[in-house]
Structure formats: C-alpha cells, structure tokens
Write a structure and sequence with these properties.
Length: 260
C-alpha cells in the first residue's frame, strides 16, 4: 500500500514538472516572436527614409532656341553652350536701338542666365562716321560670338549713299570675324518713319544686299503700320524716336528670332 502511494506521488511530480517546462517554452517563444515583430515595425523603410535618401539632382533646362533661328547662328550657339563656354553677343547701331537692346538682353538673360553676356555700342553717327570714330574703339578682344548690326540707315538718309552704307556694313562684319573666325553676323534694319519716301528704297536695298551676300537679316518692318499711315506715330514719334510700342515691336522681333 505504501509502494502504491509513493508511485502515485512520483507520477504526479513528473506530470507537474513536464507541465511547467512546456509553459516556460511557450512563454519564451512568445517573447522572441514579439521582439521580432517590434524590431520590424521600428526599422525605417529605405524607400521612405527622407533623411537618408539621396534626391536626384535636377538636370539643367536646355535653352530652347526658335525653330526659325538662322541655322549657322543656332549651330554656333549650341556649340558654345555644349562646350561649356559663355556666349558673347554685341549689338551695334544707332541710338534708337539702345532701349530695344535692353529689352532683348533681358529676355536672353532670363532664358540663358550667366551663359550669355550682351554688350551694346550705339552712336548718333552715320555709318561712314562710325567706321572712322566708333569701330576702332570696340574691344574685339572680348571675343564676340554673335554681332547684331543696325547699319545706321536712318542717319545715312540724305547723307550717305546706299553703296557706301553697304561697304561700311562689310567692314564691320570683317572686323567681327577677324576677331572670332566663326562669329555670326546678323543685320537688322532701323525703325520705319512716317512718309519715308527715299528711306523706303534704302531699306529695300539693304534687305536685297544682305540676301545676296548670305547675311542673316532680322526683318521687323511687317510688324509696324505702313509708313504712309498716321498710325505709325503710335510707334515712332515725329522726331523719329521710338515710343514704348515701337521698342516692343522691334525687340519682339529679335526675341522671337532667337527664342521660343
């Protein structure tokens, strides 16, 4: 009887010990599982970590030149920019083109930033006087890539014959391309005036001459009222100076020639 009692007590002790071991094993397993889940929740996702993720640098916006920009000019500008060089642009002409230059330069700078520099040389002279007095003073060592020339035609009216104006134009072109061999040389006429008469013939001769010599010509006269219309006085005053509308019309033609 005593043996049976001992056996019963021993069996009960074994069962209790086994139950206790199983409970500890399950508890430890739950602790480990909980620890793994917590670690996964706390670890930052590589794709959402804004502090460590590297943002790609934005590519520089390419300059959008006008589709109709003269091919040789577009090629030169693209080459300079692709080579990481700054473009040097020079505008030469009468005093009338000064405010036009300022508006045109502002538009170029807005699109091209520090990659372009615009200079202007203006004078109240005929083309013949400019060749003698103004041209020698230009610092060609700057290395101008693009030259826009307004050939003093209005000042020449009644003072310099058409053939002389044309030769003066070629002298400016030669000086520019002597400094920079592949420099682009562009011609633009001055403003129209009311009841122009012979002046109209001078402008027509200028356009024909540039075309015959393969010189790019920025035409803007079609954007103005006819020279026999009093409406032109809204663009050009009787003293032949430009109004704000005149400045806008001429500079828009230059801007639209170069930029989209």
């Amino acid at each position: 009887m005593k043996k049976k009692g001992y056996l019963y007590i021993l069996l009960l002790a074994v069962v209790c010990a086994g139950g206790l071991f199983y409970s500890m094993t399950v508890y430890n397993s739950k602790i480990r599982d909980a620890s793994v889940v917590k670690s996964a929740e706390q670890a930052p996702s590589p794709s959402t970590n804004k502090d460590t993720a590297t943002e790609p640098e934005a590519a520089p916006t390419p300059v959008m030149f006008a589709d109709d920009l003269f091919p040789e000019v577009k090629s030169l500008l693209s080459k300079r920019l692709d080579d990481g060089e700054n473009v040097q642009l020079l505008i030469i002409g009468s005093r009338s083109i000064q405010p036009v230059t300022e508006r045109f330069a502002a538009a170029l700078t807005e699109k091209m930033g520090d990659s372009i520099t615009v200079d202007a040389v203006t004078a109240d002279l005929t083309s013949a006087q400019f060749i003698e007095q103004g041209l020698p003073k230009i610092d060609w060592s700057t290395g101008y890539d693009v030259i826009i020339y307004e050939p003093f035609t209005l000042k020449n009216n009644g003072n310099v014959v058409i053939e002389q104006e044309q030769q003066d134009l070629l002298k400016v072109k030669q000086a520019a391309q002597k400094s920079v061999q592949d420099a682009a040389f562009i011609v633009t006429p001055p403003q129209p005036i009311l009841k122009a008469n012979y002046y109209d013939s001078q402008i027509a001769a200028l356009k024909k001459f540039t075309s015959a010599n393969g010189i790019p010509y920025v035409e803007h006269w079609p954007s103005w009222p006819p020279t026999n219309s009093d409406e032109l006085l809204n663009y050009v005053r009787k003293d032949q100076s430009l109004t704000d509308q005149g400045v806008k019309t001429w500079s828009d033609a230059l801007i639209q020639t170069f930029l989209k």
